[in-house]
Amino acid sequence: MINIKSLIINVLIPNVIGFLSSIIGKVSDNFNTFNKPNWTPPGIVFPIVWTILYILMGISSYIIYESDTTYKKDALKVYAANILINGLWSILFFRLKLFFVSFITVIILIVLTIIMIIKYYKINKAAGLLQIPYLIWLCVALALSYSVYTLN
Predict the structure, then answer these.
(1) CA 86, 89, 94 angle in degrees (round to 5)?
(2) Residue 49 — φ and ψ, nearest 5°?
(3) Would residue 37 count as lying in a domain?
(4) What is the pLDDT of residues 89-148, one digit of tens each?
(5) Helices (H) and strands (E) in the chain — how many of each?
(6) Is 33 part of a structural domain of the chain?
(7) Which conformational region is residue 97 in: left (phi greater than 0), alpha (psi within -120 to 50 degrees), or beta?
């Protein structure tokens, strides 16, 4: 049985954190203010992709949260660290323009995401697999972060 209230809360958490970090980071104001590689996706792609990824994060965290296992607490701690560092990245990259620090932050996010996927997968295969698009997008973000760092 689906706990609708819990599902909504779990989906809202990453979306709210992502939204707040984009406002604090002044993402829309700063996207065009630095040199980017010519393969950079158009600005409109980012909020669409991130919203989808945040929804998937919320669904998978809901699955883990509602699971009946003692391992969920540890898995959700990794998720909490991940989503907080994810929110910090926008501020570091867009507002503070700390491109090298942002690049390192994406590496940390990739490591945390791999750990999260493994922990989630051990609890619920679907929850783990729902994080694969996020991992792929983080790899794109890593390449983009490095490129922006080297171009600026």
Answers:
(1) 140
(2) -65, -45
(3) no
(4) 999 998 899 999 999 999 999 999 999 999 999 999 999 999 999 999 999 999 999 999
(5) 7, 0
(6) no
(7) left
pLDDT confidence of residue 29: 74
Q: Is the pTM of this model over 0.90?
A: yes
DSSP string, 92-124: IIIIS--HHHHHHHHHHHHHHHHHHHHHHHHH-
* Domain containing residue 53: 4-22+44-151
Structural domain includes residue 38? no
Give burial (CB, 10 Å; 0-12/13-18/19+) of 50. buried
How far is residue 129's CA from residue 106's CA, in Å, rounded to a whole number? 20
Residue 11 lies in a domain: yes
**Beta carbons of 78 and 121 less than 8 angstroms apart:** no
